[in-house]
Amino acid sequence: MTIFLQAGWGLFIGRFHPLLVHLPIGILIVAFLLEWLSRFRQLAVLGAAVLPTMVFGAISAVAACVAGYLLSLSGGYDEAALNLHMWMGIAVAVISILLCVFRKYNLFRKSWLPVSAAMIVALSVAGHYGGNLTHGEDYLTAAWPFGGKKAPAAAAFKNIDDAKVYEQLVQPILETKCYSCHNEQKLKGGLRLDGMVNIRKGGENGPVLKDSIPEMSELYKRLVLPESDDHRMPPKGKPQLTPQDLEILYWWILQGAPDSITVKELHKTPRIQLVFEGMKPSGDGLHPYMPLTQTSKPGDQAVQALVQTGMKVMPVAADNGYVMVTAINAEKFGNADAKLLEPIGKQLVWLNLGGTATGDSALQIIAGLPVLTRLQLENTGVTDQGLQYLSTAKQLKYLNLNNTKITDKGLEFLQKQAGLRELFLFGTGVSAAGIEKLRKALPDLNVDTGGYRMPVLATDTTIWRKNPA
């Protein structure tokens, strides 16, 4: 038996338990109904079907018990709930076998129906606790529509800076995507994620948070593994984290995984700033770079075409179909790829092409995107010629041209962009005279030329320490 389990066959067979357990549930319920209906004179003929149905139910119940026991050996379950589920399952198997014997040898006829009813009760209890082990104790009550506990709603803030990082940003993500496998009843990997004390404690393989480095923290590393990887969390078939969820968790770990601090007390990276902007409500004057109208979501095929190039496509708010597209993992995205943006033109409001192979010809297509309000072109090959194409994009509010080959000639093409509000020109070839001329043409425009220098403090020193193996 030990060799059998060590070879991995035990766990392999045990994983058939969720499949096998549904057989006795259905079959034994049918057997009970046949037993009950056969008590009516007009339906007495159904009594002949009770024994064969009960036999199949008993066999499947025994098989489910064996598989369930082998699965339980893998650990990670609350002992009390597991034991109750197991003994109720065994009770179902034993009662179904007794009913087969009673029927076969015509024993205790008056007890057939009440014993069958007791079997259904045990079956219901076993199923209830099995569901708790798999999905969490509040799996049903969390969705109760009549005043009970409800699933956490997506967070929306009028002022994201005042949001509590753990309680209002991180915890809702863990609650909806992770608690079902890492709670008090089900400790997959010996890990609980319901509470900072449990998160910091870690699981059977040690801590899941390490030194403010998300790439070394198991809590983050497993979230970004391929779906085909056995260590991927959540596993394939479970609700997955959105790109925004991943960014929030990454940033939270990067900041040291604080549990009692607000957003405004932490440094915000450019990536998390984009996510936070998407969490702000639109159309209320708090966010000047969002259309006031609603739109439908972009087509899956168009989104997938962009994703295949390495682009990230994310919704900017929960109450409309507008999206942001960022080339964070698509450095080779170039002029020819710009055509992939056209099918989502009615939804694309923020576009980040920083650090890509994008050049002037791509801006001919980008300028035609009807609702684009924010465009980042820093560290690209864009020149003055590209800005000539971009001069027709009247809806543009934000433009980042840092570290490009833009000169004063390019700025002249922007003088008719009355809606432009923010322009970044660090590392370009523009002159102070060219910027002054642009400011006179667009008095509401904020031009940022960068190059700021801050005094270095002793407290700015970063010390890296290697963890002992």
What would you note in describing this structure?
The protein has 469 residues and is mainly α. It has helices at 2-6, 9-14, 17-20, 22-37, 50-72, 79-104, 112-135, 165-177, 196-201, 218-221, 243-254, 270-279, 300-307, 360-366, 384-390, 408-412, 432-441; strands at residues 312-315, 323-326, 348-352, 374-376, 398-400, 422-424, 446-448. Strands 1-2-3-4-5-6-7 form a 7-stranded mixed β-sheet, with helices on one face. Helix 14 runs parallel beside helix 15. The radius of gyration is 31 Å and the shape is elongated. The two termini are 35 Å apart. Mean pLDDT is 83; it is low at 148-154 and 282-286.
Strand order of the largest sheet: 1-2-3-4-5-6-7
Characterize the overall form. elongated
Distance between the termini: 35 Å
How do the SSEs run, as a string of H and E? HHHHHHHHHHHHHEEEHEHEHEHE
Helix/strand-derived category reads mainly alpha
Q: Name the helicity range.
A: 25-40%
Mean pLDDT: 83
Biggest sheet character: 7 strands, mixed
State the helix count: 17
* Beta-strand residue percentage: 5-15%
Oligomer: single chain
- Extended strand count: 7
